[in-house]
């Protein structure tokens, strides 16, 4: 029997007896009172009751206990070198792939938003997330010796994940962060945390079996605004990575820590008629219908040159979308937006009705007062450029299409609709001048030409994927380098070999 096995057996037995083994390396011990203000602490005991024979496998009620356990795991990972990181990544990818159907179903049942086929695809697609191979050191060599710049870990990262892709974001965050040698504590979305807790526990169980590390990815159960604050304030948490809308981005920016912010978007599409309209329509339907338009990169509004407008609308209908009449759009708009400050159109700032986010097209059609054929992917209609569906990030499968007189007008209106998020935009065109003009005007992180939005994340286009796209803070599509510190090691005058 090796030492690890003996230690595990002792921990297991003592765990059942409700005691900790002295010097147990993996189970996080209850901590003394944390420095966080009393008002923001839960009244419950600071650490969840022990489960799984005393092992937590990453699941904690208390953010400080989670950070401490993650710090221990970070040190254990460091001791296992790059091979240990590789193994963790292999485990996470394999579990996502093997459980894609089951976990997709579980996430859909909890969140009730989006589509099962795409939830499965997002989990299977974790295999394409870059790992340790992404971290190539930078060497310099000259008369004064040699210098190496390396991508080193931060330690523990505090991460916030969205409701729109809960397990996929948790998984790809773990892959990128662990590839860089870090551990992570998650505060998931309150409406999507149960599935994330289940996935994190499953990852840790497998990681523990293979590597003896119990809490490499920790998660707070249940997540609250208070647990986010405690996580962000914990001194062991070195940086934050938040994926979500404007609220969480603002909160992360105020935390006083460096934050990688994957913020909101409202991606516009321009169709200038110089490329195949049928292909453009097909691509727009694929992107806007994906997971019922939950993707932050998803096509949210389209601007089409007037002379090609009718043909493009016909092409959308031929490619699985259903056109609404102006009356139906009005009814749908009334159902899809609320005005919390004012209580009625024009009274306050419009907010998307969360009940309809990620709904099926049939549900939206019913709100619009109509029925649609089975298999309809998307609803669409002509709207003005200042329509709520154009200017708000609606995240539901209704696509507003705006008629414009020129490419210049289309670009200008697309820029307004994008709201300066600098997130994503698309063009369908064979005119490189139009492409260049739009790229320069909108300055989006992702700019996709002649493909659906998902081509920007390696699904039909070149490149790798990630569900955290750091638009607001500029790191771009997250990858292992995003979660590293660059450290320089200098040897003066020696070790150059010629
Ligand atoms: P959301 O903003 O409601 O929630 C995102 C996360 O932030 C959740 O975990 C939530 O609990 C937390 N949160 C919200 N306000 C907070 C606050 N004040 N303090 C601390 N935590 C807070 O977003 P959602 O509906 O879950 O996801 C959709 C949004 O996320 C859209 O705006 C979408 O564009 C964006 N998103 C961006 C990316 C990207 O990579 N850039 C990826 C996915 C989603």
Any descriptors?
binds nicotinamide-adenine-dinucleotide, 16 helices, alpha/beta, single chain, 6-stranded parallel beta sheet, 498 residues
What is the CA-atom radius of gyration, in angstroms? Answer: 25 Å
Quaternary state reads: single chain
| Contiguous helical run count | 16
Task: Indicate the low-confidence ranges by residue numbers.
Answer: 8-50
Spatial order of the strands forming the largest sheet: 11-14-15-10-9-16-17
Shape: globular
Task: Work out the strand percent.
Answer: 15-25%
Structural class: alpha/beta
Q: Could you describe the 3D structure shown?
A:
Residues 8-50 have low confidence and may be disordered. Strands 11-14-15-10-9-16-17 form a seven-stranded parallel sheet, sandwiched between helices. A six-stranded parallel sheet has the order 1-6-5-4-7-8, with helices on both faces. It has a three-stranded antiparallel sheet with strand order 2-3-20, with no helix packed on it. The protein starts with a helix and ends in a 6-residue tail after the last strand. 39% of the residues lie in helices and 18% in strands. It has 498 residues and is of the alpha/beta class. Helix 3 runs antiparallel to helix 6 (166-179) and helix 15 runs parallel beside helix 16 (432-442).
Can you lay out the helices and strands and say which pair or pack?
Elements: H1 3-16, E1 59-60, H2 63-79, H3 81-98, H4 100-111, H5 116-124, E2 138-142, E3 145-153, E4 156-160, H6 166-179, E5 183-187, H7 193-211, E6 217-220, H8 225-233, E7 237-243, H9 246-254, E8 259-262, E9 268-271, H10 277-289, E10 301-305, H11 306-318, E11 321-323, H12 326-336, E12 337-338, E13 351-352, H13 361-368, E14 378-382, H14 388-391, E15 398-404, H15 407-418, E16 424-428, H16 432-442, E17 446-449, E18 469-470, E19 476-477, E20 484-492
Parallel strand pairs: 1-6, 4-5, 4-7, 5-6, 7-8, 9-10, 9-16, 10-15, 11-14, 14-15, 16-17
Antiparallel strand pairs: 2-3, 3-20, 12-13, 18-19
Bound molecules: nicotinamide-adenine-dinucleotide.
């Amino acid at each position: 029997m090796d030492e690890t096995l003996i230690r595990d057996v002792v921990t297991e037995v003592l765990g059942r007896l409700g005691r900790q083994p002295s010097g147990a390396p993996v189970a996080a011990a209850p901590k003394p009172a944390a420095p966080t203000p009393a008002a923001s602490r839960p009244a419950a005991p600071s650490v969840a009751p022990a489960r799984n024979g005393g092992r937590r496998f990453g699941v904690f009620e208390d953010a400080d206990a989670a950070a401490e356990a993650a710090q221990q795991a970070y040190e254990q990972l460091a001791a296992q070198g790059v091979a240990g990181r590789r193994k963790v990544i292999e485990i996470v990818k394999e579990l996502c792939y093997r459980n894609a159907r089951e976990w997709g179903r579980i996430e859909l049942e909890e969140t009730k938003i989006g589509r099962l086929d795409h939830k499965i695809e997002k989990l299977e697609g974790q295999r394409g997330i870059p790992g340790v191979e992404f971290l190539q050191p930078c060497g310099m060599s000259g008369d004064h010796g040699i210098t190496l710049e390396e991508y080193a870990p931060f330690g523990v990262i505090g991460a916030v994940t969205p409701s729109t892709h809960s397990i996929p974001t948790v998984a790809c965050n773990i892959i990128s962060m662990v590839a860089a040698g870090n551990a992570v504590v998650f505060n998931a979305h309150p409406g999507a945390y149960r599935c994330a807790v289940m996935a994190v526990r499953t990852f840790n169980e497998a990681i523990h079996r293979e590597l003896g590390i119990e809490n490499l990815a920790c998660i707070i159960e249940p997540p609250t605004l208070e647990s986010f604050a405690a996580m962000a304030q914990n001194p062991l948490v070195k940086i934050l990575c938040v994926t979500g809308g404007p609220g969480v981005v603002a909160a992360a920016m105020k935390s006083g820590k460096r934050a990688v912010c994957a913020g909101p978007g409202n991606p516009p599409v321009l169709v200038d008629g110089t490329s195949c309209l049928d292909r453009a329509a097909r691509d727009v339907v694929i992107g806007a219908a994906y997971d019922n338009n939950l993707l932050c990169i998803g096509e949210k509004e389209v601007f089409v040159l007037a002379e090609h407008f009718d043909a493009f609308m016909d092409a959308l209908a031929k490619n699985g979308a259903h056109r609404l009449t102006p009356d139906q759009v009005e009814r749908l708009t009334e159902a899809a937006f609320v005005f919390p400050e004012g209580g009625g159109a024009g009274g306050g700032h419009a907010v998307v009705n969360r009940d309809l986010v990620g709904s099926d097209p049939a549900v939206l059609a019913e709100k619009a007062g109509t029925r649609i054929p089975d298999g309809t992917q998307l609803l669409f209609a002509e709207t003005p450029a200042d329509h709520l569906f154009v200017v708000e990030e609606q995240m539901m499968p209704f696509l507003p299409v705006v008629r414009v007189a020129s490419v210049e007008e289309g670009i200008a209106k697309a820029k307004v609709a994008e709201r300066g998020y600098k997130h994503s935009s698309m063009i369908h065109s064979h005119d490189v001048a139009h492409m260049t003009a739009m790229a320069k005007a909108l300055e989006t992180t992702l700019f996709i030409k002649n493909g659906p939005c998902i081509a920007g994340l390696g699904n039909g286009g070149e490149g790798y994927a990630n569900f955290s796209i750091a638009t607001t803070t500029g790191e771009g599509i997250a990858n292992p380098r995003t979660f590293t510190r660059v450290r320089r090691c200098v040897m003066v005058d020696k070790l150059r070999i010629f």
